[in-house]
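This entry is listed as follows:

___
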Amino acid sequence: MTDLLFDFKVRYIKRWLELDVDGVYFLDDWGTMAGLMINPRLWRERFKPLYKQMVDLVHRTGKHVIFHSDGHILEIIPDFVEMGVDALNVQVKLLGADTLSREFGGKICILVDIDRQGVLPFGTRDTVSEHIKEIIRAFSHLDGGLISWGEIGPEVPFTNARTMLETFTKYGRYPLKVKD
């Protein structure tokens, strides 16, 4: 079964690479709110070599690899760095902005997912702004390596969506500086 899925993914990636795209986005969740879905040793034995082949395929064309995974995946982030993934889209609120910055800052670009389970739908303007500024502060010592974004679903109040955009606009340009 793994071979069939891998062959499908490779054909899919090759098709995307025929187009005028800047990179390929992998959307494979490996974490839950409590930890990995699979033993990290087994992940490294079975899946990492396949991902490495796909990452190399994309890089041979001069394009970037962005990898998305929800959940608590700290144990395998070093593997994404080692495989050459360019940007990693993770749940920063779950993993900790300071931890991500300290452990992986400068090694892999972090595409932060503004907390769409708590802060964006249920926070106030102040909590939305503070959450984003906390993330920017954690990565501000780096020269690049942070991409901020937030998913706006129907449960997100317009004021919070606007606050997110205003905070990104005010503080989210390099060099990052969070001062009021």
